[in-house]
Write a structure and sequence with these properties.
heterodimer; A: alpha/beta; Rossmann fold; Alpha-Beta Plaits; 6-stranded mixed beta sheet; 5-stranded antiparallel beta sheet; 38% helix; elongated; B: mainly alpha; 10 helices; 72% helix
């Protein structure tokens, strides 16, 4: 498969510490790739290396199948980016900020109006960006990133500091990009909830290492619910369930089974009662994606 | 390269830095007004120019140059301009060169403004002697050439420090001693920050085209230019943003 973004053993070392350690990213065309990890996990460092803002200590970055090292200009012509906080020139207006970029990327003037309209800043176009709210600055940053009609859009924490309505708006805007314009999007965040409604593929990074990379469906499958049985003697129940032919895990004072089908649960409970066990509680535990994400990154931190 | 230049010029002309260029010529005008002296020179213009050039070339030319170099980097430092600019399809070498050329151009503009202010000074004072164009051109151009290494160093420092005050302090630290150093026969010729004065000092060694020996021009001005320019260039190539 051809990947729009592909990194091989990408590593960045600051002194002794590896901020990014052997990361292998694979992003097919047209995906919205949620790049997740707690703060300080190495997201921004990785993104900076994707854009050539920082040199990798080792490993390589390929965008559109070309090595970034040797094809920087040709590649960057096709990439739009917003790294960390929105970047802008405070002494210029929104329109002038875009104009300064337009002179370099060389697109028609009409394109500036288009992108300003897309992020709904057309009414603030002639105001100095200094006085913009954070949300407006973020939107201007996205407009700037879209100015030269990139095929790959890299957004680092674009919802940072936005209010809930701003986040929803941003989500709407980003979600339509692959369908409408065929753009592949990479969006990083430290909160899964911010990307789980738009991401199609997810990569989770923790302590500089990629610990999960798959479709969002695969992540959802991990998050499937389970039934917890609180019983008088978990060990014996566990044994009995194995004899019965049901996989089960012993938790502190309960036994967990993966099935949630009503009929199956009913017959398991009936069986256990017939065996003479006392059942105190039958509870369904739903693990949210957020919990899965937290568990993933927590385990990694303990290790 | 041309497109980067257009973009850089656009960002610059929208700021108020350009107005700074008028300060040194105005101060020169003022100093020329109040200065009096007799240095045994017949031409009234030369007397005025020697007086005004000294303060201008020793202090204000290097200082304002540093401020301009600082400003051309300041709006990149302020709100993530560097990372936005360098993630565009540009090479770092071209960005660096563009900024350098732009500052150099502004310094030349300032030199010409200074020349204009001297002509105004003469008109105000009613000097009737013939204007020594030939000498004056040499000093205006010489001052510009002598400033080119200082521009490079200031640009380098301004790229390193996010804080505007740091490169400015460095500039002051090196500029102020030149008041003393230029009086030293031994060290004066080798001090890069003293060269703008020496090359604008029309009362100096008149035999040389630029008022200083060619070897000094090549060794001190040329040498410091190479060190500062390529130092900054290499730094910027590797700078992580």
């Amino acid at each position: 498969m051809e990947y729009i973004v592909e990194t091989n053993q990408l590593t960045k070392q600051f002194g002794k510490e590896k901020a990014v350690d052997g990361v292998e990213i694979r992003i097919p065309k047209g995906e919205i790739y949620g790049f997740l990890g707690p703060n300080g996990a190495g997201k921004t460092t990785t993104i900076r290396m994707l854009l050539g803002l920082m040199r990798p200590s080792s490993g390589s970055v390929h965008l559109f199948g070309k090595d970034l090292k040797n094809n920087r200009i040709a590649i960057l012509k096709r990439v739009g980016s917003l790294v960390e906080n929105p970047s802008y020139y405070p002494h210029l207006t929104a329109y002038e900020n875009l104009e300064a970029i337009r002179k370099i990327v060389d697109v028609p003037r009409a394109r500036m109006k288009e992108v300003l309209k897309l992020v709904r800043l057309q009414d603030a176009a002639n105001k100095k960006v200094k006085g913009f709210s954070l949300g407006m600055k973020q939107r201007l940053g996205i407009a700037a990133a879209l100015l030269h009609q990139p095929e790959l859009l890299i957004l680092d924490e674009p919802t940072n500091g936005l209010d809930p309505s701003g986040i929803i708006e941003m989500r709407k805007l980003i979600k339509q990009l692959p369908e409408k314009y065929g753009i592949t999007v990479v969006i990083s965040s430290h909160l899964l909830s911010e990307v789980d409604q738009m991401a199609t593929t997810v990569g989770v990074i923790s302590k500089g290492k990629m610990i999960f990379q798959d479709s969002i469906e695969a992540m959802r499958r991990i998050a499937q619910a389970s039934i917890h049985l609180r019983v008088n003697d978990p060990k014996a129940v566990h044994q009995a369930l194995l004899v019965y032919g049901q996989k089960a895990d012993i938790k502190e004072n309960s036994v967990a089974i993966q099935t949630t089908a009503d009929e199956e649960v009913a017959s398991i409970v009936q069986y256990l009662v017939e065996q003479g066990f006392a059942i105190y509680r039958v509870e369904e535990e739903k693990r949210s994606l957020e919990n899965i994400f937290l568990e993933m990154t927590k385990e990694e931190q303990i290790r | 390269m041309l497109s980067i230049m257009r973009s850089e010029w656009y960002k610059l002309r929208k700021s108020w830095v350009i107005w700074l260029l008028f300060i040194p010529p105005l101060i020169g005008l003022f100093l020329g007004q109040i200065s009096m002296g007799d240095i045994g020179e017949a031409n009234q213009w030369i007397i005025k120019l020697v007086m005004a050039n000294a303060t201008y070339a020793l202090l204000f030319l290097p200082l304002i140059t540093g401020v301009v170099a600082g400003f051309i980097c300041r709006y990149e430092h302020q709100e993530g301009g560097w990372k936005q600019l360098l993630a565009l399809p540009v090479t770092r070498g071209k960005v660096y060169l563009t900024k350098y050329i732009l500052v150099l151009f502004l310094v030349l503009t300032m030199q010409l403004l200074y020349l204009g202010s001297m002509l105004i000074l003469g008109a105000i004072q009613g000097i009737t002697d013939p204007f020594p164009w030939e000498i004056v051109w040499r000093s205006i151009l010489g001052g510009w050439v002598a400033t080119s290494p200082l521009v490079a160093l200031q640009l380098w420092m301004s790229m390193i420090f996010k804080n505007f005050a740091a490169p400015f302090s460095i500039n002051v630290i090196f500029t102020l001693p030149s008041l003393l150093v230029i009086n030293s026969e031994r060290f004066g010729p080798y001090y890069p920050w003293g060269q703008p004065f020496l090359m604008m000092n029309i009362g100096g060694e008149g035999d040389n085209f630029f008022f200083i020996p060619w070897e000094q021009l090549l060794m001190v001005v040329g040498g410091s230019f190479i060190v500062f320019f390529f130092g900054g260039y290499l730094y910027f190539q590797r700078k992580a943003v």
